[in-house]
Amino acid sequence: MQLSRLLLFKQNTATKAIIHPVSKTHISRMALPISSPSPRLDRFGQAMESLYGSFSSIEDPKTWTPPPGSGGHRGRYLWTDAFGVVNFLTMHSEYKRTGNDTIGDDRYLVLAARLIETVHDVLGRNRDGRSRLRGATDANPLGGGLRIGKTDARGPDGDGQYHHYLTVWMFALNRMAKASGDLKYNRQAIELAKAIHPKFFVDRAAARPRMIWKMNMDLSEPMVKSEGNLDPIDGFVVFRLLQDTAMEAGDDAFLAEEIDDYRRTMERKGEHFVSSDPLDLGMTLWTAHWFSGRERWAADLAGKCFEQICQSPFVSIPATQHKTVRIKLTDDSR
Q: Do 227 and 291 fall within a single domain?
């Protein structure tokens, strides 16, 4: 699934995958690709099919049930499926961009919606599937958060809730709201944010609050009490994206207090530690990029990430380009 992870957050670029219909006569049936803007996008689609099955076998996207390919409990894993939602939206966007949407086919948007529904129905419930998580109701199905989807119920790697998984899912819901024009998805993300936020904080009202890395399945007690390196920045950025979308639609600033909690936590931690781990490094750079063009802290963090990337054995960037890109990141913040 690494290809999908690498391509996840490129929804605002031209690097989006597309599967075209075979004909205009069977519009209710999914179709194999007959052409693609690039081989890279073909590989994108293949990566998605490796998890979610052959798209050509789906006769009606509205009745599709995502197969249990995400590797988690009852076939769902929150991190992987968050990437899956955004990838479907990328495919939908590319379908529109390439001018092949002559029949108004929103198949990939529908598949994203079905994946969201399935994740909420599985990971928003207890492991036996019989009842919702504590705090959730039919009116607010995300009021109890969302389980990680770990295979084991207990143990050091047992099921529970991760803050950074939840914020990635909130981002996926936000992008669904943007792509579909249906603000219910952003409202769901805000409801999820409101539900989980206080559970991951210790001394929230203090001047120097701190966060919890992992909570148990019903958010009643911590499983790992240490603080995640990226969690405060994740919350600070994603919650602001949710609030911006809400306010653009005329809603209130629902998350102002929560955003301030993350700000104070970031201030307590001071200068952010940039890991050399490729996944952590990539996620930090992605998180910072949302505000690197207008806020100094984000530009500085992005610059530190780039410097770490230049030293990484996994990439090769000519030394002559290092200073140029570093200056560009700094200039964008002014």
A: no
